[in-house]
Amino acid sequence: MLQRFERDTDMSAVRARQREEFGGVNWGAAFFGWLVAVGLGALLVGFLAAAGAAVGVTDLADSDAAGNAREIGIGGAIGLLAALAIAYSCGGYVAGRMSRFDGARQGLGSWLIGMIVTVVLAIAGALLGAEYNVLEQLDLPALPAGDSELASGGVLALVLVVLGTLLAALVGGKAGERYHSKVDRAGFPE
């Protein structure tokens, strides 16, 4: 029994030393987690757009779109939130898996990189003007809803996306870190 206690104490000291030296945010892992989140997010949002086109959301008459604008908007927001949450969860998982400690911090790092890139691109779009706005150059369908309705719904959707992706990245990072804990437990059975 004393030998097991000594081994556990030694292992705790080793883990504490490892965490002290290698803990914290690993920005390389966070970057690759962000790349996974962006890639998967693009694929999932593309699938959502294709599914919307397949069921005829883009071919609605103005009267049909006006009558169903609220349902289309809510469904689109839920689909977007789900796609981005899945993407950032996977990105956080990759970052947590690549780094041995602090999986939630790795997920947070991936999310922060995504927010920084988004803000930089928004500032660049505002400074460079409409000629560089890719979304304005696409001929996307518009819903006939009032500006105040779109503004309040847009703010709510933005808050949900920001908080949802943050939570998903943290949970994904924690899940990625669990792998290393399993390996440690297998290496030192009781």
Helix content bin: over 70%
- The Cα radius of gyration reads 22 Å
The best one-word shape is elongated
Query: Main beta sheet, described?
Result: none
> What structural class do you assign from the helix and strand content?
mainly alpha
> Kindly state the mean pLDDT as a whole number?
76
How many domain regions?
1
Number of helices: 6
Proportion in β-strands: under 5%
Structure description:
The chain is mainly alpha-helical. It has one domain (27-179). Helices cover 83% and strands 0% of the residues. The chain has helices at 2-22, 27-54, 62-98, 103-128, 134-137, 147-187. Helix 2 (27-54) runs antiparallel to helix 3. The longest helix is centred in the last third of the chain and has 41 residues, at 147-187. It is elongated, with a radius of gyration of 22 Å.
